[in-house]
Design goal:
The structure holds two protein chains of two kinds. By secondary structure, chain A is α/β, with parallel strands linked by helices. In chain A, 30% of the residues lie in helices and 18% in strands. In chain A, strands 3-2-4-1-5-6-7 form a seven-stranded parallel sheet, sandwiched between helices. Chain B has helices spanning 4-9, 12-18, 22-28, 41-47, 50-56, 60-79, 123-131, 154-157, 179-189, 195-209, 225-239, 257-264, 278-283, 303-327; strands at residues 86-90, 105-108, 112-116, 143-146, 164-167, 244-248, 270-274, 286-291, 294-300. The chains are: A alpha/beta, B alpha/beta. The complex binds guanosine-5'-triphosphate (GTP), adenosine-5'-triphosphate, magnesium ion (MG) (2 copies) and zinc ion (2 copies).
């Protein structure tokens, strides 16, 4: 089985792109499954199921969804292998701009959209910087020049990625993406022993553990204070 | 080719001198290099402790690889011989799967070709095939050759080395930038050599094309439809280094289309335009007729046909005259 990890900001078009890409992959007779990781809520599993795709979902609740991803991905991979999938795609909502679910030597795709603003690429962090493929959606809504400016901003923070423009509504470009998804040489039996591309620090302050009250007395553990003099 | 190690060991000042485009690379990657021009990148990274690296999500090895990749890309682009002297379309199938009835269609540098056909017949699809440099991997199964060969697939994915500049039907903007800032960014992404001058020219030409003029400080999101189109036409004509220009319908715009086309027709380029407008179609050397998704015919524009052009242009001037009077709040009757 192949594994591809797809990540990206909320509503950037991940599900739309994955569904269209699976259409193209199915024409080649491949069996594909999806696992969706999110924080509090998702409907995506229904969308995949409707399209006849085996799907699992995991909600991280109070945890960073990327931390939750690493803690569960091996079990999910074993589920996919048991289902005799040729390809398992993971979709995770990039809610944490600091973490990313990418694993070394496992294809990593970041989906971001043209509407998110020129400065978004430099704000996103490892999820964009260490992806192999960056898919840019919603190009139908903006002019060609704006698409180019946006893509060049992406290229600045991740020059080695393949950048692709895909229309999540019509699927234009998804055929091209599908040719990069399945790789017979990169078959996995297990993820045990593999490594993340980027560290995932967790602050572990009292608020991580459920504290809700405001004030110094309630702050414990790894607490960091703003410097209001320098504004840093 | 420059390698990661060469970058790591050189003084930042000398790197920036040789590769000025690294300034935006460092900036967008959150690396403050100001005041560190005598340090090497390795030295700069060693100043950060583990916590700072985690904090800034900086991975020195990755960043140096990316910097090397970026420099090599930019150098390749700047030295690139972008010469495209011929574009070849090899037949595919129409919407019913029937093979297109031509052997190959070759379009040469400096040629203007129009694409005509009913709504939904596949004009935009043909432009899409060319933009993607299709290799039998689109719904039409057409193949596109550049200078007679299957091109390197880097055309498909590069952000700066673009085979085609496209003027699409969609002219919306969402970015919070002024006209000047936006064109500057676009010029930067296309690596033009004298950006300030080029940006001025784009804005001046756009104002020549637009019915109502706008200032460089206007936010792009508040341009009118006609102004946006004018800006994009001037931008495509002046900024782009791409050897092929694709135009998807420019007629229904509040702009001077003949002037627009003249601006776009630089000698060096291949121009293809999908159009329903007889004036634009006749200005082309040839026209491709699309029916049911397939190329049904190619017609050369004859001199005889061009005689109609002057009649059409006369009509067009008349209409334009009325439009101007209408806009200016005058009566449409002569002499009132
Ligand atoms: N106009 C336009 N809309 C798009 C495009 N791609 C996706 N959308 C729309 O954007 C919305 C969000 O798309 P999704 O595919 O659900 O996004 P997502 O990233 O999976 O969202 P989450 O999983 O909830 O984070 C939907 O309404 C899509 O129809 C596109 O290329 N163009
Ligand atoms: N040869 C073909 N085989 C299969 N599908 C095709 C073919 N040519 C075009 N199509 C499809 O037909 C649809 C309409 O085509 P397209 O948008 O290119 O039409 P158009 O001529 O540009 O129309 P309009 O004048 O309205 O802009 C598109 O979905 C396109 O992908
Ligand atoms: Mg989704
Ligand atoms: Mg069209
Ligand atoms: Zn996180
Ligand atoms: Zn916390």
């Amino acid at each position: 089985m192949n594994l591809v990890t797809v990540s990206g900001p909320p509503s950037s078009g991940k599900t739309s792109v994955i569904l269209k890409t699976i259409d193209a992959l199915k024409q080649r007779g491949l069996k594909i499954g999806v696992v969706k990781f999110d924080c509090l809520y998702t409907d995506d599993d229904t969308l995949y199921r409707k399209a006849g795709i085996p799907v699992k979902k995991g909600l991280s609740g109070a945890m960073c969804p990327d931390h939750y991803f690493v803690s569960n991905i091996e079990e999910v991979a074993q589920w996919g292998i048991g289902e005799e999938l040729d390809l398992l795609i993971s979709e995770s909502a990039g809610l944490c701009n600091r973490c990313s679910p990418y694993i070394k030597e496992i294809k990593a795709v970041c989906v971001i959209d043209n509407l998110s603003g020129v400065n978004t690429p430099k704000k996103i962090g490892p999820m964009l910087k260490s992806a192999d493929i960056v898919v840019i959606t919603k190009g139908d809504i903006v002019s060609q020049a704006e698409r180019e400016v946006f893509a060049s901003k992406v290229n600045l923070v991740n020059p080695s990625a393949i950048i692709m423009h895909i229309n999540g509504l019509t699927g234009q470009g998804s055929f091209e993406l599908s040719t990069l998804f399945h790789d017979e040489k990169n078959v996995i039996d297990t993820l045990v022993g593999r490594e993340l591309r980027f560290t995932m620090p967790s602050a572990l302050c009292s608020y991580c553990l459920g504290e809700t009250r405001i004030g110094e007395n309630f702050q414990m553990g790894n607490v960091r204070k703003m410097n209001l003099e320098t504004g840093q | 080719m420059i390698g990661k190690n060469q970058i790591a060991e050189r003084h930042i000042g000398s790197l920036l001198e040789d590769y000025p485009f690294l300034t935006s690379f460092f900036g967008d990657n959150g690396l403050l290099v100001d005041g560190h021009s005598d340090a090497t990148l390795n030295e700069l990274f060693s100043e950060f402790d583990e916590e700072e690296r985690e904090e800034k999500a900086i991975n020195p090895a990755l960043l140096m690889n990316q910097a090397a990749e970026f420099i090599n890309q930019m150098l390749a682009f700047l030295n690139e011989d972008n010469d495209v002297h011929a574009l070849t379309i090899l037949p595919g199938t129409d919407k019913s799967g029937v093979p297109e009835g031509f052997d190959s269609l070759v379009i040469k540098k400096s040629e203007v070709v129009s694409i005509v056909g009913p709504t939904g017949s596949g004009k935009s699809r043909l432009l899409g095939d060319i933009e993607w440099v299709a290799q039998a991997d689109t719904p039409t199964s057409r193949r596109i050759l550049i200078n007679g060969d299957i091109p390197d697939s880097s055309w498909r994915f590069s952000t700066s080395k673009k085979l085609v500049a496209q003027l699409s039907q969609n002219m919306n903007f969402v970015m919070d930038l002024s006209v000047r800032e936006f064109i500057e960014l676009h010029a930067e992404s296309r690596l033009v050599e004298n950006p300030a001058e080029i940006v001025e020219r784009v804005i001046i030409e756009a104002n020549n094309l637009a019915g109502e003029s706008f200032s460089p400080d206007t936010p792009i999101t508040s341009l009118s439809g006609g102004q946006s189109r004018a800006l994009m036409i001037a931008d495509t004509a002046i900024l782009s280094r791409s050897p092929i220009i694709l135009i998807d319908e420019i007629e229904n715009a509040g702009i001077d289309r003949k002037r627009a086309l003249q601006l776009l027709l630089s000698e060096e380029k291949i121009v293809l335009m999908a159009t329903h407008d007889p004036i634009l179609a006749l200005m082309a050397d040839r026209r491709i007729i699309i029916r049911n998704g397939g190329i049904a015919k190619v017609i050369e524009t004859t001199d005889e046909e061009r005689t109609i052009l002057s009649t059409l242009e006369e009509l067009d001037r008349t209409i334009l005259g009325y439009r101007t009077r209408l806009r200016a709040g005058e009566s449409l009757l002569e002499g009132e």
